[in-house]
Amino acid sequence: MAVKIRLKRTGGKNKPAYRVIVADVRKQRDGKVIETLGFYDPRHQNEKIDVERIDYWISKGAQPSETVNDIVLRTKGIQKPKKVYSPKKEKVEAK
Q: What is the spatial distance between Cα 21 and Cα 39, in angstroms, rounded to a whole number?
């Protein structure tokens, strides 16, 4: 069974809030969950996550989504490495 750690949307219309959950990959975004690990409110910059349970699920093979991974890194106090973009190379037209 493939398991992911992802966000489940809660809150009202135009007022999003999210729960950090563990769910089967085949289930819908707001469908059945295995465990709730915390919450994230982007409007008020609130986030609370049970990091020990996140580590437990990752050790069991669960894959965190990119957003959840960023939230966990912020909670642990680890800075995410910035992406380095190389400048685009100009095309040289052959005459």
A: 9
Q: Is residue 94 part of a domain?
A: no
Residue 82 forms part of a structural domain: no
Residue 66 tokens, joined: 């990119």
Number of domains comprising the chain: 1
Task: Confirm whether pTM is higher than 0.90.
Answer: no
8-state DSSP, 95: -
Note the pLDDT tens digit of each residue in 1-33. 689 999 999 999 999 999 999 999 888 878 888
pLDDT of 78 > 70? The answer is yes
CATH classification of the domain holding 58: 3.30.1320.10
CB atoms within 10 A of CB 26: 8
Distance of CA 17 to the CA centre of its chain: 13
Exposure on the CB side of residue 24, measured as CA atoms within 13 A: 6
Q: Are 6 and 24 contacting, i.e. CB atoms less than 8 angstroms apart? A: no
